[in-house]
Amino acid sequence: GSAFWLADKDSKKMDAIEVLNARCVFKRSNTMANVYADTYHVPKVGGSDAHFGAEIGNAGTLVPEGEGLADAIRKSHTMTFGKCSLPLFHVLTTALLMERRVVKPKYNKK
Questions:
Q1: Distance, CA of 77 to CA of 86 (rounded, Å)
Q2: Contact assessment for residue 29 and residue 47, using Cβ atoms and an 8 Å cutoff
Q3: H or E stretch including 91?
Q4: In whole angstroms, what is the distance from residue 73 CA to residue 39 CA?
Q5: What average pLDDT does range 30-51 have in this prediction?
Q6: How many angstroms separate the CA atoms of 59 and 62, rounded?
Q7: Please, which residues have CB within 8 angstroms of residue 52's CB and are 6 or more apart in sequence?
Q8: Nearest 10 degrees: CA dihedral of 48, 51, 55, 57?
Q9: Using 50, 70 and 90 to split pLDDT, how confident is the model at 106?
């Protein structure tokens, strides 16, 4: 789903919303998720959504020392950090998907 189409009633069903996804192609998706979280007081989380090792840790969620993740989310004590992955990783992902769908099936026929 997209944060662009969420309403007030939807916020009551959420534990948190990912406002920083490092693999987001369009930064406005992260921005709109952040605006939604602020508007409807939904706790914020972030994640790297890594597809390659070099992307691990590009983004994430910080919680206060000694507080568990679930409790921090319930109390809105979370903070996101990070940056978006390089566009190169999206190109690599597309290339790998094409290889799996086009090249490999051709050689796997019996």
A1: 29
A2: no
A3: helix 87-98
A4: 17
A5: 92
A6: 10
A7: 89, 92
A8: 40
A9: low
Q: Which residue has the tokens 């789903």?
A: 1
Reported as a single tens digit per residue, the pLDDT across 47-68 is 988 877 788 888 999 999 999 9
Provide the greatest CA pair distance for the chain: 57
When pLDDT is cut at 50, 70 and 90, the band that residue 95 belongs to is: confident
DSSP 25: S
Cα gap 66→29, rounded to integer Å: 31
CA angle 11, 47, 1 (to 5 degrees): 40
Residue 88 makes CB contacts below 8 A (sequence gap 6+) with: none
Q: Find the length of the chain.
A: 110
> What are the backbone angles phi and psi of residue 90, rounded to the nearest 5°?
-70, -40
